[in-house]
Write a structure and sequence with these properties.
Blueprint (H helix, E strand, L loop, with lengths): L3 E5 L3 E5 L5 E9 L10 E5 L5 H4 L7 E4 L2 E8 L5 E5 L3 E6 L6 H8 L5 E7 L2 E6 L5 E7 L2 E8 L8 H13 L6 H4 L3 H13 L6
Helix pairs in contact: 3-5
């Protein structure tokens, strides 16, 4: 399963409910927001991308701290994690257990200030932006596995997307100019290796 993860500096907060218990609120993803450079490309999540997965039966997304299954904060199955696809993107709230008040305190102090989600997609589109860079639009999230707060809100785990970029470049090679790719040495090296492995001659 080709799971991708995105750690993003989006709003994250802790509220105290009427019963005195903590509630973590955050945005796991936001629509129409350009990512940072993910290694030779950027991406945007299109409005409605979470609609299909939110209707999926038997889904049990878990709330994790730093994607670590040893730090479970809540689950959909138990009702301690709730998700909502709203106009801006994907929102979540978690009822953390008393054993995870250390994570709650880190959020309160703003030591932890980002959110993340783990996903799969089989519906993306590649194009170029106004500067000639490679731009990926994610149209449908087909699988959603975990959401939650993260210590370092930087985009990570892009290897699946890079493979998708290489496939796009192979398919559309006649329409692309090689010099434009030399802006990113790592991307160019990966593309050349990919094409050689598939029997293409590269100068």
């Amino acid at each position: 399963m080709n799971v991708e993860r995105r750690n993003i500096p989006l709003p994250l907060s802790v509220e105290t409910r009427a019963d005195g218990r903590a509630l973590i609120r955050g945005m796991a993803a936001r629509y129409n927001v350009r990512s940072v450079d993910l290694g030779g490309f950027t991406e945007e999540i299109r409005p409605g991308a979470f609609d299909a997965v939110m209707k999926a039966e038997g889904r049990n997304v878990v709330g994790l701290y730093n994607h670590d299954q040893n730090f479970v904060l809540g689950t959909e199955r138990a009702g301690t994690l709730r998700l909502a696809a709203i106009d801006d993107g994907l929102a979540y709230e978690i009822d953390p257990p008393d054993t995870r008040m250390d994570v709650v305190e880190l959020i309160r102090r703003s030591d932890v200030f980002g959110s993340s989600f783990a996903f799969t997609t089989d519906d993306d589109e590649w194009t170029t932006d106004d500067k000639g860079g490679h731009l990926r639009y994610i149209r449908t999230i087909s699988g959603l596995f975990d959401v939650g707060p993260v210590l370092t809100p930087a985009y990570k785990d892009t290897s699946v997307a890079v493979r998708s970029l290489e496939k796009h470049l192979q398919t559309h090679r006649p329409a692309l100019k090689l010099p434009a790719l030399r802006r990113d040495a790592k991307t160019e090296t990966a593309i050349r290796r990919f094409l050689r492995q598939h029997g293409h001659k590269v100068r």
